Amino acid sequence: MKIERAVIKEDILPDKIKAILDALIKEKNLAIKGGVARTVLLYYMKQGRKRINEKRLEIEKDLSDIDVIVLHSQSLARSKEYLIQREEILREVLSEFISEGIRFDGRDIEPVRGSLLRPEYKQKTLTKILRTRDLTINEVVLIPESNYWTAYFSKRCWRDLLCSIGMLTSGGWKTIRYDAGRMIPTNYGFYRLLKFWVEKKVGRIWLPKWMIEVHLKEIERRNTVEGASLGRYSRVIVNQYRNSSPQIKKRWMRALRYLGFTDLESFEIFAKEQELLDALQNQEEFLFEENVSLFQMIEKTLHERKKKQKDREERKKRMKRCLHKFSVIQCNGCERRCRINKCLYCDYVEKRGEFQCNEIFRTGDWCRDPSSLISFPRSNSLQHQLVQQSVLLL
Description:
By secondary structure, the chain is α+β, with helices and mostly antiparallel strands. The chain is built from 15 helices and 14 strands.
């Protein structure tokens, strides 16, 4: 990945953003990500006479939280105490903004192993950070350097901020899963992708129709109860947007209906449905409470990583022992019409080369498949939905 660099002049930025940057300028081995970083890069583009939608700027600069990356030198478990100390310091530094209602807690601090201080590690660390963002428009960070801020970003971040496109990357370990060797969004991936459209931070999202169909078939195969087509993230939507404006709620239902994830039109009825599902399934709650600590987030991450590693090792053992019996899946997702040989017993996939769909994901090159860009038409009737999705594939 080639990384671009831009020195930021604070006089072009809104007062709130400048105040946040001034508060963090003395912090070492830290990077700002998320909404602050995107907003700063958009203002830099505007200064360079790029055509930036003013409404989009207003939405981006209306910050709800401050997201940072804190670098550490050891494993996450061994760095826990150091990171918790950094959390305390940063909460004090940002106390003025927290008191004004801008969220900053453990959910907004991302620990990354590496260093931005030592030149021999800086490029590698920046590459690692940018490659593990969830969406291409998030492949940008701000770093304090000699009392000024520098933006580091990918070319596709620049492109998609200008084009207002939401596209998942292949580097987000929680946002992508594999189906017959093909990358598709996880429940969390769908949630993140739709969230940016609902909040008007992108105008279109890249999401091929076949990925939606594969997802819905998997939901059906697992006999998931009706209404839980995004798993527990349907509940997250309800919790996070319960007090949002009617317009935002309508946009959520418009997107979910268009993709076939619900047939409900009312956000309030959708919310009640999710509450009933929670009661029926008696599942554990997400971290919905306020002021979630970094300690809680680290423990959760360590648990998830351990489980993921265990699942990966068990899958490898199962594939190694398996006497494969293959079935053929005819994929009609693109013009290649790939024939995929998948084992009936262990899900092993024979691959002679990388699938084109995975290459598009890996490179973030939606330009190779522009027909899969979705803008969500205002009509939510099922007939209109099917017609529109068919047109997108022509």
